[in-house]
């Protein structure tokens, strides 16, 4: 699964280079999570997960607090969680997750981004079956053997564990996300290189330079949309 970790690193690097955009997206995601349950992460697992993800992207405390306070204040701003599926050049596949207060606007914008950049929207289920929902947690300062021992002692099941460039990456079922994190936290690890619930492609495509350039233009156009939170795909980034 090393290639998949490379894709996640590329995605993080891209987001780190667009801090204002990613902070705005996290602000919306934190508000929605806090508004749908208790505004306390210890009583709201979804909010806790979003805050843990935000930490790996260095989202400022002020943005987090503002979003939570907005939820506490009883804002009537409501968002729908939407998922779109589609195709890009050379058989590439994409899944697009969005949070929106205007479903028609978002659907129109996502469709236009696909159409203007060499892709096309698919129907629900046309792509998702080729992806697996996966928890991905990365830690530094431990070997693969040490990390595996920590997880075994905590009786946590994982799909795979690899060590790459000084980072141990754990792939697990989504419902094991908190169990993996808590096992590491009990072992004294408080910082995570990555903490994501993602959609990993079962099979990845390698594209030649020109096609990858066109594909990345499509992904960038979709990610630039205000309502889009996540874009997953089946391309090996290089």
Automatic annotation (TrEMBL):
It is found in: Cytoplasm. GO terms for biological process: regulation of DNA-templated transcription. GO terms for cellular component: cytosol. Gene3D superfamilies: 1.10.10.200, 3.30.70.980. GO terms for molecular function: DNA binding. Residues 3-74 form the TACO1/YebC-like N-terminal domain. It holds the Pfam family TACO1_YebC_N. Residues 79-235 form the TACO1/YebC-like second and third domain. Keywords: Cytoplasm, DNA-binding, Transcription, Transcription regulation. It comes from the Bacteria. HAMAP family: Transcrip_reg_TACO1, Transcrip_reg_TACO1_YeeN. NCBIfam families: PRK00110.1 (NF001030), PRK12378.1 (NF009044), YebC/PmpR family DNA-binding transcriptional regulator (TIGR01033). PANTHER family: TRANSLATIONAL ACTIVATOR OF CYTOCHROME C OXIDASE 1 (PTHR12532:SF0). Belongs to the TACO1 family. YeeN subfamily. This is Probable transcriptional regulatory protein NC799_10720.
